[in-house]
Specification:
- There is one protein chain.
- With 497 residues, this protein is α+β, with helices and mostly antiparallel strands.
- It folds into 3 domains: 3-84, no CATH class; 108-281, Leucine-rich Repeat Variant (Alpha Horseshoe); 337-494, Cyclophilin (Beta Barrel), CATH 2.40.100.10.
- 45% of the residues lie in helices and 9% in strands.
- The chain has helices at 3-15, 17-26, 38-53, 59-64, 70-84, 108-114, 123-128, 134-143, 152-163, 180-192, 194-204, 210-223, 226-232, 238-252, 257-263, 269-279, 287-300, 307-316, 337-341, 371-382, 469-473, 490-494; strands spanning 347-352, 360-365, 390-391, 393-394, 399-402, 430-433, 445-448, 461-467, 479-486.
- A 9-stranded antiparallel β-sheet has the order 3-9-1-2-8-6-7-5-4.
- A hairpin with a 4-residue loop joins strand 4 and strand 5 (399-402).
- Helix 12 runs antiparallel to helix 13.
- The longest helix is centred in the first third of the chain and has 16 residues, at 38-53.
- The termini are far apart.
């Protein structure tokens, strides 16, 4: 870009912002959506494409900053700002963004927050095990430590929770649990009464539900049971394998390097990454060659979201991160991005599987904040990408996260999504894109269960829950998404066929 053009862009962007900013002060809500001509769709798509490409020399931006349509001028100025600074410190969207819905916390969350490590006073933990909602009860189990060893009533209650878990723990009704109580209870029991936990651990390590076996690995870590951990490190599920390898490497160091070398051939990025980390500093002469070979295999996968496993393999091989060969970024703007950017009101319905308690919640896509990302998520939903995937991470006073093809943060979409950071401060009910570094969105969602203002500077909001927040609050770890689909507007539903 020439100096003259650059100066003109900056001048138009910042001097010309006054008219839009003034409009924002008078009209804090985004302009209503109007029908788009084919030409306006093409122009907006070109602006968004320049933003995705981080191309400040695109002449469309300069032209569009002088558009007669204030919405087009707004998008061009914001795109230029994001290109100049991808983290876009100012984040001024000319005019101001609309506020997200406000949801009060459910009453049980106060009880959840009040729970603390027992430090010998186990009465509150024991009482919480009988709470009327399961998130509080599971939290109490997770806080149990060895200071409660002498509490026989607590030990008995934990043993009962493990024993109540059936052979088939794959389904639950809304407000209840399936495998959760038994799995959490097993780990808690390992802390307070190892003799009671061991026979139950042997049964749990063979359970059909992989989440139970993953928690069995955690319990085995508490009990320092390396024999069971070695068995689970060969499990057929890579999430179980990951949990066992992480625990085993802390207990035995490099004594089990042969097992970790074998795990390098796993299909799941999470298991291979865990094996690579466990092998770092290995005295075995074949460890470096094995990691180099595994690195080449993962490069061949051509998947951006596997960068963590590639970097772990490089580190163990003693190579710099600069040796990584990620797939070439392919700039892409989904077909309906322009529609969203110009104010279209588009919603998605997330329907939970009946086996996970059922219910549904509705998300309005925030085209005013992140039209490029919102349009890609819309496209993926319409392609049934999310159907049958899970919420693999649930922290009842933080977020739920899901949409991974492998029920793990390390497996996602093969092409990263660009960040579109904004000023909405991540209030409860907003929906954001999970990342592991700037511009590494891999199509995994998270929903803020409380106000998480600290996430604003790093994570893009692309939607907000407008119906069914109680269903979001009721999601438990591992719950399955039946489908995510676009909500058809009323006129489309009533139109005669």
């Amino acid at each position: 870009m020439t100096a003259a053009i650059r100066s003109a862009l900056v001048l138009v962007m910042f001097c010309g912002a006054s008219d839009a900013t003034a409009q924002g002060a008078a009209q804090p809500k985004a302009a209503p959506h109007r029908s788009l001509t084919r030409a306006s769709v093409a122009e907006v798509t070109a602006i968004l494409t320049a933003e995705v490409r981080r191309d400040s020399s695109d002449t469309t931006l300069l032209k569009s900053m002088n558009s007669h349509d204030v919405r087009v001028r707004t998008l061009a100025r914001r795109a230029f700002g994001r290109i100049r600074d991808p983290k876009f410190a100012a984040r001024d969207s000319f005019p101001a963004l609309r506020a997200a819905p406000v949801y009060p916390d459910p009453d049980w969350r106060l009880r959840y927050r009040a729970l603390k490590k027992p430090a010998g006073d186990c009465a509150a933990i024991r009482a919480a095990l009988a709470d009327r909602v399961w998130p509080v009860r599971l939290r109490a189990m997770d806080l149990v430590d060895a200071s409660c060893t002498g509490d026989s009533d607590l030990v008995f209650a934990l043993g009962e929770s493990v024993d109540a878990m059936g052979v088939d723990a794959s389904t639950r009704s809304f407000g209840s649990v399936s495998w959760h109580a038994g799995a959490h209870g097993l780990v808690a029991l390992a802390h307070v009464q190892p003799a009671e936990a061991r026979p139950r651990l042997v049964r749990s390590m063979l359970h059909a539900q992989w989440q139970v076996r993953a928690y069995a690995a955690r319990a085995a870590a508490v009990l320092a049971d390396t024999s069971i951990l070695r068995t689970l490190a060969r499990d057929g599920d890579d999430n179980v394998k990951e949990a066992a390898i992480d625990a085993l490497s802390k207990l035995t160091g490099h004594a089990d390097d042969a097992l970790y070398l074998a795990a390098l051939s796993s299909k799941g990025a999470q298991a291979v990454r865990a094996a690579a980390v466990a092998l770092k500093g290995s005295p075995r002469p074949d460890a470096v060659a094995a990691c180099n070979a595994a690195f080449e295999r993962w490069v061949a996968h051509d998947n951006a979201s596997s960068h963590d496993v590639r970097e772990a393999l490089l580190a163990t091989a003693g190579r710099p991160i600069g040796d990584d060969r990620p797939p070439t970024f392919k700039p892409y703007v989904a077909p309906r991005a322009a529609e969203l950017a110009m104010g279209a009101d588009i919603k998605l319905r997330v329907t939970m599987s009946p086996a996970a308690g059922g219910g549904a919640f509705v998300v309005r896509l925030r085209g005013d904040v992140a039209p490029i990302m919102a349009a890609r998520i819309l496209e993926l939903a319409n392609q049934h990408y999310y159907d049958g995937l899970t919420w693999h991470r649930v922290e009842a006073d933080f977020v739920i996260q899901g949409g991974s093809l492998g029920a793990t943060e390390y497996i996602g979409l093969d092409q990263f999504l660009r960040d579109e950071l904004g000023t909405v401060p991540h209030p409860r009910g907003t929906v954001g894109m999970s990342t592991r570094g700037h511009d590494t969105g891999d199509a995994q969602w998270f929903v803020n269960l409380k106000d998480n203002a600290r996430l604003t500077k790093d994570y893009t909001i692309f939607g907000e829950v407008i119906e069914g927040i109680e269903v979001v609050d009721g999601v438990l770890e591992g719950d399955t998404i039946l489908r995510i689909e676009e909500v058809r507007p009323a006129w489309a539903r009533t139109r005669k066929r």
